[in-house]
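Appendix B, record 7
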Amino acid sequence: MCFMKKILKFYADGFASMRLGKTLWAIIIIKLLVIFVVLKILFFDHTLESEFPTPAQKTDFVLQNLTKKE
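Structure tokens (predicted):
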């Protein structure tokens, strides 16, 4: 456990002394949040939630669409 504390302290001290690094990490986190929000809103459909009230009906719908031969 002492080894883990040393590793955590090493990274905490290194992160605390950064100036540009904090800004870059903030930009990365903001970009990831925006990307996930946009993907959730635009690409992930809620039809299973709204069209099928029970889990059994959702399962049947997904199974039929996965095993459909075209």
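Remarks on this record: Residues 48 and 57 are 9 Å apart (CA to CA). The mean pLDDT is 84.
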